[in-house]
Amino acid sequence: MLQKKGGIMVVLSSPSGAGKTTLVNLLSKRNNFFISTSHTTRKPRPNETPGKDYFFVGDEEFSRLIKNDEFLEYAKVFKNYYGTTRTPVIQNLEKKNNVIFDIDWQGADQIKNKKLNYKLITFFILPPSKKVLFERLSNRDMKDKLIAEERMKQFDRDVLHWINYNYVVINDNLEECFLKIQKLIDAEINNGSKDYDKEFVKKHVEKLIS
Ligand code: ADP
Ligand code: 5GP
Q1: Percent of the chain scoring above 90 in pLDDT
Q2: Ligand 2 center to 77 CA (angstroms)
Q3: Ligand nearest to the backbone CA of 78
Q4: Burial classification of residue 138, based on how many CB atoms lie within 10 Å of its CB (0-12 exposed, 13-18 middle, 19 or more buried)
Q5: How many CB atoms lie within 10 A of CB 146?
Q6: Closest residue by CA, ligand 2 atom 12
Q7: For 26-80, what is each residue's pLDDT tens digit?
Q8: CA atoms within a 13 Å half-sphere pointing along the CA-CB vector of 76
Q9: Which are the contacts of 7, defined by CB distance < 8 A and separation ≥ 6?
Q10: Are 54 and 208 in contact (CB under 8 A)?
């Protein structure tokens, strides 16, 4: 096997509203991770900053980026397109900067299948319950109740992808969840022992979709 080089890639995915964006920002702030800023055809939310949260583009520009083969991965999520451009990611990894991605399971699969020569750690974030998830989605997308309902409908399908990730972490208390991810990343980097109970996760998923 080839020796892994450069920085590491950390992917966080989750059903919408479980808290991965919040966790990505926290991880980046406390660890100096470079956040991969995606392109999307979705309209900005009121609290979002173009160029920071996303590069907001139209369908035409997104198609141009696909045609020019600029995406490391891209996918249609809900009704919009989302994608990660390759150049900033590779440039940072080559400089030994660690890069963190907030992308869905389709993007995580694509990056995994590329088998890049950088260490990749994937996390799937779950909410403590569906009730809590609905509350978080309703609070975040206050202006549009339909969005929360639409994303809840997708939940049972999205959650099934947990099996393809290295680790699944439940985001109940934010600080505890952050520390759990942090410890797992440290253990991966240092080849240390991992505090991880897959059976517990499996039972939690069964409860969520029952
Ligand atoms: P995602 O990126 O997975 O769709 P967000 O990070 O946007 O989810 O989180 C959804 C909402 O839930 C946000 O309003 C966020 O502030 C809130 N949130 C995230 N984690 C927690 C937590 N542990 N406890 C309470 N609220 C949280
Ligand atoms: P939101 O619209 O709530 O910001 O994101 C919706 C979903 O799109 C989330 O699951 C998020 O992780 C995913 N997403 C954001 N950026 C990308 C990306 O560049 N590629 C892929 N595949 N998914 C993304």
Answers
A1: 78
A2: 7
A3: 2
A4: middle
A5: 9
A6: 103
A7: 999 888 799 999 999 999 988 899 999 999 999 999 999 999 999 999 999 988 9
A8: 4
A9: 34, 92, 93, 95, 96, 97, 98, 99, 118
A10: no
d(CA 83, CA 65): 9
- With a 6 Å cutoff on the Cβ, whether 122 touches ligand 2 is no
Catalogue all structural domains in the chain, each as residue range(s) with its CATH number: 9-36+97-209 (3.40.50.300)
Ligand 2 centroid, distance to 82 Cα (angstroms): 6
In this structure, the residue with its CA closest to atom 6 of ligand 1 is 19
Q: From atom 2 of ligand 2, which residue's Cα is the shortest distance away?
A: 42
Residues 127-141: tens digit of each pLDDT: 999 999 999 998 887
33: which 2 tokens? Answer: 């991770």
| pTM of the predicted model as reported, rounded to 2 decimal places | 0.95
- 45 CA from centroid of ligand 2 (Å): 14
Residues with CB under 6 A from ligand 1: 14, 16-22, 136, 139-140, 171, 173-174
Atom of ligand 1 nearest to the CA of 24: 6
Q: How many helices (H) and strands (E) does the chain have?
A: 8, 9
Per DSSP, the three-state class of 79 is coil
| Residue 189 DSSP SS3 | helix
